[in-house]
Amino acid sequence: MTEKGRDFKHVFNSIIIWANKYLKSCKRTVCHEKCGKEIEMRYYCKNCDEYVDDLIIKELKVKNQ
Q1: Whose CA is closest to 43, among 6, 5, 14, 9?
Q2: CB 19 within 8 A of CB 29
């Protein structure tokens, strides 16, 4: 699998978690391989070294190509 494919796995897993919560027809969830229990998705700020809930969407500056 490519690096892009491995990165997309996180997007796909978050969709499964959302579907499990809101769609009755969803028959899958994402679990911790070691213990088999469901996981939760959290956002982590490397700069502040903490998990965060206060998110904003910002426009990225265009890099010179």
Answers
A1: 14
A2: no
What mean pLDDT is predicted for residues 41-65?
91
What is the band of 64 on the pLDDT scale with cuts at 50, 70, 90? Answer: confident
What pTM value is reported for the model? 0.71
**What is the rounded distance in angstroms from the CA atom of residue 32 to the CA atom of residue 11?**
17
Beta strand spans in the chain (E): 43-45, 50-52
For 20, the token pair is 């499990």
Q: Element (H or E) spanning 9, and its range? A: helix 3-22
Closest CA to 18 of 41, 35, 44: 41
Residues 39, 30 contacting (CB under 8 angstroms): yes
